[in-house]
Amino acid sequence: MANLTLQSTYILASGFRIPVVGFGVYQTARAATEAVVLKAFETGYRHVDSARAYRNEGPTADAIKKSGIPRSDLFFTTKIRTSEMGYGPSKRALESSFKETGLDYFDLVLIHAPYGGREARLGTWRALVEAQKAGKIRSIGVSNYGVHHLEELDEYIKSGGGGEISVGQWEIHPWLAREDIVDWCRKHNVVVEAYSPLVQGVRANEPVLTALTKKYNKSFAQVLVRWSLQKGLVPLPKTATHSRVGPNIDIFDFELNEEDMKMLETGEYAPVCWDPVKSFD
Ligand SMILES: NC(=O)c1ccc[n+]([C@@H]2O[C@H](COP(=O)([O-])OP(=O)(O)OC[C@H]3O[C@@H](n4cnc5c(N)ncnc54)[C@H](OP(=O)(O)O)[C@@H]3O)[C@@H](O)[C@H]2O)c1
C-alpha cells in the first residue's frame, strides 16, 4: 500500500491491468472535457471513466489522442446506457461509441445499470462478449448490480455464456460501504471501482472528516480517496475544476491508521447518486 502510485495497477480477470485510481467525467460539460482530461493525464492519471450517458466520450478520446502518452499506457472506460439494453441495441451502442471516439479498442465497457429484465441484461452481456472476442474491448463488467444480478450473470457465464466479470462499479464511500457486494466481488475475483468517492462533496464538513483532515493535514477529498484505496477499491474522483485535479490525488504520502479506518465505518446506507442495485425486474 505504501508503495502505490497513481500509475500502479491491479490485474483483472481478463488478464489486462487497470490503474488503481481513475478520473471521473460524469457531469463534466462536453466543451470542458478534453482540457480537464488532459490536465488529469499531465498530473499522472492514466485511467479515465466516461459513459455514453455522459455525452463526453468523444472529447475524452480526443484528450487520449492529444496527450502524447502511448495508448497502451492509458485506460478508457465507457458504459452502455440503460436505454440501450438488449443484444441489438447494445451492439449498435458499441458501434456508435467507436464512431464517436475514433478509438481502436476500449479498455473496459460496463453495463451501466441492471435495468430492463434478465433477457435484456444477458443480451447486453452477449454483445460485450462478442466485441471482446473480436478484440474491440479488453475487459467487460457491470455497474450498479445487486448481488442477485451478479448471481444471475455468474450463473449464465458458468453455463457457457462466455466472458468474465473483470470489474464492477458502485457508489461506495464511508456512508455506503456495500460490504455484501464487495465481499461477493472479492470471492469472484472482480475488481471493485468506487464511484462518488468524494460523496459529491456533500459530506465535506462531517465531524469525523474534519478530525482526520486536521490530524493528517489533508483535505476531505484526499482522506476519502485514501480510504477508498486502502479498502482495495479503485476510486474514481471527479472534478471539472483544474486546480483540484492534482490535490485530490495527492494521497500517496500518508496512510490512515487502523483506528481511523474504523472511525470511518459509519454503518450508514446513504446514497448520493441513483441506486439501481435494489431493482428487482
Ligand atoms: N456507474 C455509475 O452509475 C456512476 C454514477 C456516478 C458517478 N460515476 C463515475 O464516478 C465518478 C465520480 O463520481 P461523482 O462525479 O458522482 O462524484 P465525486 O467524485 O464524489 O464528486 C464530484 C463532485 O465533488 C466536487 N469536488 C471535487 N473535488 C472537490 C474538492 N477538492 N473540494 C470540493 N468539492 C470537490 C466536484 O465539483 P467540481 O467538478 O466543480 O470541482 C463534483 O461536484 C463520475 O465522474 C463517474 O465517472 C459512475
Automatic annotation (TrEMBL):
Pfam families, alphabetized: Aldo_ket_red
Ranges annotated as spanning the membrane: none
UniProt keywords, alphabetically: Oxidoreductase
InterPro entries registered for this protein in UniProt: AKR (IPR020471), Aldo/ket_reductase_CS (IPR018170), NAD(P)_OxRdtase_dom_sf (IPR036812), NADP_OxRdtase_dom (IPR023210)
Site feature (Lowers pKa of active site Tyr) residues: 79
Highest taxon of the lineage: Eukaryota
The protein's name in its UniProt record: NADP-dependent oxidoreductase domain-containing protein
Organism of derivation: Oidiodendron maius (strain Zn)
